[in-house]
Amino acid sequence: MEDVLTATPDSVTPAPVRKIIHVDMDAFYASVEQRDNPELRGKPVAVGGSEARGVVAAASYEARIYGVHSAMASVTAKRKCPDLIFVKPRFEVYKAISAQIREIFADYTPLIEPLSLDEAYLDVTENLKGIEIATQIALEIRTRIKDATGLNASAGISYNKFLAKMASDLNKPNGQAVLTPKVGPRFVETLPVKKFHGVGPATAEKMHRLGIQNGADLRQKDLPFLVEHFGKSGPYFYGIARGIDERRVKPDRVRKSVGAEDTFAQDIHSYDPALEGMQPLIAKVWRYCEANAIRAKTVTLKLKYSDFTQITRAKTIEQPFESMGEIEQTIALLLKPMFPPPRGVRLLGVTLSSLERVGQHLQTEQLRFLL
C-alpha cells in the first residue's frame, strides 16, 4: 500500500479540505472497440484472447450482465456468456485516446495522477479555470471527453482520494457522485470492507475472520490492533475507517515494480492448476506494462503454503522481456520444481521489477495490484 496514513489515535486530524476528482472511463477498452465497430454495439464484448489460456482484459456492460469481468479466464467467460464476442486488444489506440483525455485534464489542473490508461486522480482545489465547485469541473471534463472521443466517463468527487475513488463507482456508467466531509464518514460506516479500494480478497477474508465486515466494524479497531494484524497498511485502514486519507495527488508518479497475486478458495496441490491460476496474474501485470510502455528484466514468483509460510523464486535477464509469452515460459520454469508441494498452496503471485520504459530507464516507487 503506497502512501499510507501515518497517524496515531490521539493525533489524527483531517488535512485541509481538498477537492479531489477521480475520473474513470466506462468499460474503456471494450467501449473503444464498440465505438470503432458498429457491429459490436449493444453486444457482449470481451477484449482479450479467446484461446484456452486466454484472459479477459476488459468486458462491455452487456457482458458484465452475465458475470464476465476483467482478469477472468476466457473459457470461464465463454461459459458464462456463450454469445460473448472476443476482440484482440489494440493498446496503441487506447494509449492515443488516453493522451487525448489527459490533455483535457491538463486544462483544469497540473495535479494529475494517472492510475492507468482509463483512470486518474485530479486535485482541483486550486484549478486553472478558477471554478469553485468541483462537481462542475467533473461535469465539464466528462462532457468534453464525450465530445472529443465519443466515450463515456464516470467521476467521483470528494475531499480525499479514497472517497473520490469510491464515489466514482456509485453512479456508473456515465454518471458522477460526490461525498462531502459531512457525508464521507457515514458512507464508510455502511460500506462492506470487500468493496474498499485497497482491500483485496485475501485482506477482506482476513478482516472477516477478525469480525470486520464493514467500515463501522473497522472503526471499532484501534491502531495497535490494525498494525498488529495488517502491518504498514494498518494506519491506512485506521484512517479510511474514519473517512480520512491524507495521500496527495502525485503527478507523473512512476513505479519500481508491478505485481499481482491471488488467494485461492481451495488449496492447490498439483502443477497444472497452479500454472492455470498464474495466467490471469501474468495477464494483469503484462496489460499494465503494455498500457504504460514499460518492460521488465526481473520476474519473481511468489508462493504461499497453507501454513502461511512462503517462498519466492526470481529470474533476471540482461534484456527486458518483450512478450507475455516469455514471462509465461519463465513462470512455468520457476513453478515446475515446486511441485509436488510439501503442503497445499493457498496463494500465488507474480511481480515484474527492474522496469524500464520503452526507450528509457524507469525509476522510483513501488506499486502492487491485488486481485
Task: Give a verbal description of the structure.
The protein is an alpha+beta fold and 371 residues long. The protein has helices at 28-36, 61-64, 74-80, 91-106, 134-149, 161-167, 184-190, 201-209, 215-219, 223-230, 234-240, 271-291, 324-335, and strands at residues 20-25, 45-48, 56-59, 85-87, 112-116, 119-123, 153-158, 176-179, 257-268, 294-305, 310-316, 345-357, 360-361, 369-370. The strands form 3 sheets. Strands 9, 10, 11, 12, 13 and 14 form a 6-stranded mixed β-sheet that branches. A 5-stranded mixed β-sheet has the order 5-6-1-7-8. α4 runs antiparallel to α5, α10 crosses α11 and α12 (271-291) packs antiparallel against α13. The longest helix has 21 residues, at 271-291. The two termini are 14 Å apart. Residues 1-15 and 360-371 have low confidence and may be disordered.
Radius of gyration based on Cα positions: 21 Å
Which stretches are poorly predicted, pLDDT < 50 over at least 5 residues? 1-15, 360-371
Helical content band? 25-40%
The first-to-last residue Cα distance is 14 Å
- Mean of the pLDDT scores? 89
By helix and strand content, what is the structural category?
Answer: alpha+beta
Strand percent estimate: 15-25%
Number of helices: 13
Biggest β-sheet strands, sense, barrel: 6 strands, mixed
H-E string: EHEEHHEHEEHEHEHHHHHEHEEHEEE
Number of strands: 14
Shape: globular
